[in-house]
From TrEMBL:
This is Uncharacterized protein. Belongs to the dynein light chain Tctex-type family. GO terms for cellular component: cytoplasm; cytoplasmic dynein complex. InterPro entries: Tctex-1-like, Tctex-1-like_sf. Residues 8-25 have a biased composition (Polar residues). Residues 1-36 are annotated as: Disordered. GO terms for molecular function: dynein intermediate chain binding. It comes from the Eukaryota. Pfam families: Tctex-1. One of its GO terms (biological process) is microtubule-based movement. It comes from Hermetia illucens (Black soldier fly).
Amino acid sequence: MSAVESASFGSTLGDATTGRTVSQDQESEPALLPPSTYQIRPSLSDTFRANRVKEIIQTVLTETLQDKTYDTAEAAELSKQIADQVSSLVRDLNMRRYKHVVQVTLGQQLGSGCRYIARCRWDAECDNQTSDVFTNASLFCICTVFGVYLY
């Protein structure tokens, strides 16, 4: 049998996903692929909306904590509730390819000072954060939202 004759027979291979058989002749044809749509940076309209997120934080903190007094037993549940509510509203903004982290610190207002520091390693051109502070006579609350762009 010559090389020309053996090539004309072709062989079939099974396709594991569909169970169909595909000939090698069909498999060797290059498939047309769509152009690459990979973006390394967000477009101007798709950047993290820090001002809008800050408005959300202010609204949630004011509505939730306006008439509250500090209670140790309630503080953990209240901070989870605030974080979940802020996270849900930020998710509704539909910032494409952004993941967000919400951090809430709730403490008793005793008249002493408090320092809040958050560190993160990120791309300063794409990633961003915003935070807001709520205080009344009994408690203080700091809520920070970090927005990280997925490459």
